[in-house]
Amino acid sequence: MEMIDARRVHELLDYKGLIPALETAHLGGMPKQSDRLIYQEPNPEGQPDIFIILPAWQPQEGILAKLVTSFPNNKARHNLPTVNSVYVFINADTGVTEAVIDGEAMIFRKTSSDSALGSKILSRPDAENMLMIGAGGLAPYLVEAHMAARPSIKSVKIWNRTAANAEALADTLSERGIAAHAVDDLDAAVSQADIISSATMAQTPHIKGKLLKPGAHIDLVGSFTPEMREADDDVLTRASIFVDHRQTTTRSGEFLGPYERGIITPDDVKGDLFELCQGKVPGRQSADEITMMKNGGGSHIDYYVAKYLMDRHYGRTFTTSCAS
Amino acid sequence: MEMIDARRVHELLDYKGLIPALETAHLGGMPKQSDRLIYQEPNPEGQPDIFIILPAWQPQEGILAKLVTSFPNNKARHNLPTVNSVYVFINADTGVTEAVIDGEAMIFRKTSSDSALGSKILSRPDAENMLMIGAGGLAPYLVEAHMAARPSIKSVKIWNRTAANAEALADTLSERGIAAHAVDDLDAAVSQADIISSATMAQTPHIKGKLLKPGAHIDLVGSFTPEMREADDDVLTRASIFVDHRQTTTRSGEFLGPYERGIITPDDVKGDLFELCQGKVPGRQSADEITMMKNGGGSHIDYYVAKYLMDRHYGRTFTTSCAS
């Protein structure tokens, strides 16, 4: 059994290899069994503590168990992140555990490459101006993943509710040779961006659809509960709507409220990454079309990324029977 | 996150410390949440492959996730054990994974100490002759655990369907200074034993109750499905019956068939380790009484043992809020 730490995860999951691998995996289906199990414990200080197990089993190939805790009081109590996780990869031919993998690094890489795959298919190939909304742990990975998917990106603006964090992220990215700048005026930045990636905990939309530039692509990462939302109704009505997986629409506030209020219907969701990668639905159809993809994650993406990681770790060419 | 390998598990879980710790844990209840989740994949060559997750969560204290695979064709296909496993221990105050623990070593130690705790309460304090039925991976641990619980044991006989394995085990134990001998005549050995521990995959009972010596204690480890069985009806009718946990009786062939045929009823099960350790039911009441405990395991025992292991690993005194 090997311990694959964060440094090694980032090394193995460079976007130049990971994004095409994820595209290959989407040529097929989900791992045969994938599920999520949620345990909760009430917490006297507020939101409950949560322990989630996401197992995925592709017969003869791999079993992945992703173990995630979300302890909302961690920051205040221990100055620790709310979410902590670890991945266990089991060889599904032998049942033997092959690796325990750093969870945070995996989540950063898989979430950002999921968004990047959407952009690779949906954004304009000549997109130059990226806007990153949010400056949390995931933000630098989203910027790098989008730049790998669209090497045409020339500048990255960063907006964050707490401006100092946007500036710190801009500095970090600048040190890596990226033309990154923090901005104060979110609306102005939205109106100029070719690609907008948003990864916040917002419950009130901050992307105004009216301001969007023709041809823009919007990547929504934040909302994972019915209460959370990043894009307003105008984004939904102006954009061609895609998701990474159809089931995403059943959990995210980007869809649930607008469905209820009749702003859009499920038929307005044009397709997911499976349909896009397999050519069952067309992606962008004109230079002026506005596209949007809601990234909802899911244990199948964890599985694809973990299988790719293991193959690279052992020096094998990536394959998954999910794709065949 | 630490990797606790087999050598370290065995070092930390010496029986002199582990058996009393397990007794302490049984002064209270189960971890607040414990469960088992079973996934199956059909196998063209025979029995299905199984993946089991056993999570246990004691709030503020610990979350244990035991991941077990059982791949019945492993021996023939890969010369690997059928069962493989790994334990993940998460700090339930922070949600951070503290350790990944070798599963095989944990299973050997927790199963054997569970049996030993039963013997410590139920067997005669002057028991001298032990019979070990079965010579699989667990057998040497059962012998050592029973000897730790009953230092009065002077000799150990070993019977196994394949005699050569019994001899190999006797040699191994002899090298450790234990007076161990392989025997051919199972019935004779049964009739002489003060303590019988049986850990086999038998579906046909091999312990004949008629032969039992007055005062004997029978420790049944093998049967974990309705089809498996090690003790015949006479054992059940002659012995005072105990279990490690009441739920054991709902899964094991030691009970299901005899219940159905009216040999015993659930009322004949006098108590479990919780009731015994807490003094709610009496254990052995006379020198001639025959006692039997069915060891069925369970995620609560994994939890207690893992918590004890972590406390010892960090040099802390063992505590668990399960016990209070």
List the main descriptive attributes of the protein structure presented here.
15 strands, alpha/beta, about 325 residues, 11 helices, eight-stranded parallel beta sheet
Q: Biggest interface: chains and residue counts?
A: A-B, 36 and 36 residues
- The oligomerization state is homodimer
Q: Please state the structural category of chain A.
A: alpha/beta
Largest sheet of chain A: 8 strands, parallel
Biggest sheet of chain A, strands in spatial order? 10-9-8-11-12-15-13-14
Query: Would you tell me the overall average pLDDT of chain A?
Result: 96
Radius of gyration of chain A: 19 Å
Helix content of chain A: 25-40%
Q: Give the helix tally of chain A.
A: 11
> Strand portion of chain A, in percent?
25-35%
Order of helices and strands of chain A: EHHEEEEHEEHEHEHEHEEHEHEHEH
Distance between the termini of chain A: 28 Å
* Rough outline of chain A: globular
Number of DSSP strand runs of chain A: 15
